[in-house]
Amino acid sequence: MTSVAEPTDPAATARSLARAGGAPAGPGTPDAASSGQPTIAVRNLWKVFGPAEARLTRQSGPTPTAEAIDTAVDKHGGTIAVNDVSFDVRPGEVFVVMGLSGSGKSTLVRCLTRLIEPTFGEVDLEGENIRKASQERLRELRRRRFSMVFQNFGLLPHRRVLDNIAFGLELRGEDKGKRHARAEEMLGLVGLDGMADRYPEQLSGGQQQRVGLARALAGDPEVMLLDEPFSALDPLIRRDMQNEVIRLHHDLKKTMVFITHDLAEALKLGDHVMIMRAGKVVQIGRPEELVARPADAYVENFVRDIPKSHVLTLRWVMRPATADDPVDGPVFPPTAVIRTALHAAAATEKPIRIVEGRTLVGVVDRASILETIAGRDEAEA
């Protein structure tokens, strides 16, 4: 049985190992295939800005219907920024929220820690209802269990890099020696050895964002919230920082919620991606699910120019094995991205054998590989 090596690109390797194909989750519905308690569970979350919010929250009783909320906004004025959003974030995954400007994604991530107070709905952190937390408990959660990285780096210009990284630990009341030792450790983790005594103005944009990541990691949070952290960076630096997030996630297994308006970034980083439009969830799924089965024309238009062979896994193009299929073809896991099998498909006429664990789950013919690489439309298949 011939084995074929996995791709050597770190980003491709990390993402292909995380993707496993399957039926797409419905809009606004947590992935039914996932099991166990989610790290973050969001249910029927609303955020209304403006006069209508005060009118709506003045009433006691259950959450108003969508029609009642729409009526209040029309009558009293306001904006629905987050519209009945539900999703789960599983332990150790990168959950990406993707949408254009005005889609509600940044408002949503701030609602998770009540930097913006939700109007209605539930936000649970491992079963704890964040919406019922006191202000004292919220401060504790933000200092110890959550960390946040913003688009603007938010570094203190009068403090050295080391002190910027240690700032959150200082707010916790940890002694200077302990917090500096932790900050030094984080410097090495994000590749900034030797820069402890520099000031933010002496760093490049990418280096400043690495300091922001190090500061977020210094407190060893359970959940990292990243709100378009790389939007202000040049393309090459942005790519390096994306790879850095993938590396850190692979090494530390942190649960991350990552906000972006860039589809390519979402597909590269996300274990699951949620696409938002006008405050609503359009589709939730793994990157290959969004590309293979867009929920509607809006998502289809987004993914139209994405090379399917760079995102879809072999699970999406395999067929059942038959008794006539050779038993000595190349072997790949079903989670391998299609393009990584191109060299194997070109080298033999034998179908690629898709093996999960020790079980043969299907085969992929060379024609299917080459058709996907060439970008043949599924409608023509």
Secondary structure elements and their pairing?
Blueprint: H1 10-18, E1 40-49, H2 51-58, H3 66-76, E2 79-89, E3 94-98, H4 105-111, E4 120-125, E5 128-129, H5 135-144, E6 146-149, H6 161-165, H7 167-172, H8 176-189, H9 205-218, E7 223-227, H10 235-252, E8 255-260, H11 263-269, E9 272-277, E10 280-285, H12 287-292, H13 297-303, E11 331-332, H14 342-347, E12 352-356, E13 359-364, H15 366-374
Parallel strand pairs: 3-8, 3-9, 6-7, 7-8, 11-12
Antiparallel strand pairs: 1-2, 1-4, 4-5, 9-10, 12-13
Q: How much helix, percentage-wise, in residues? A: 25-40%
CATH class division of the largest domain: Alpha Beta
CATH architecture of the largest domain: 3-Layer(aba) Sandwich
CATH superfamily of the largest domain: P-loop containing nucleotide triphosphate hydrolases
The overall pLDDT, averaged over residues, is: 85
Task: Examine the coordinates and then state which fold CATH places here, giving the name of the CATH topology of the largest domain.
Answer: Rossmann fold
The order of strands across the largest sheet is 6-7-8-3-9-10
**What quaternary form is this?**
single chain
The number of strands is 13
Q: How far from one another are the termini? A: 30 Å
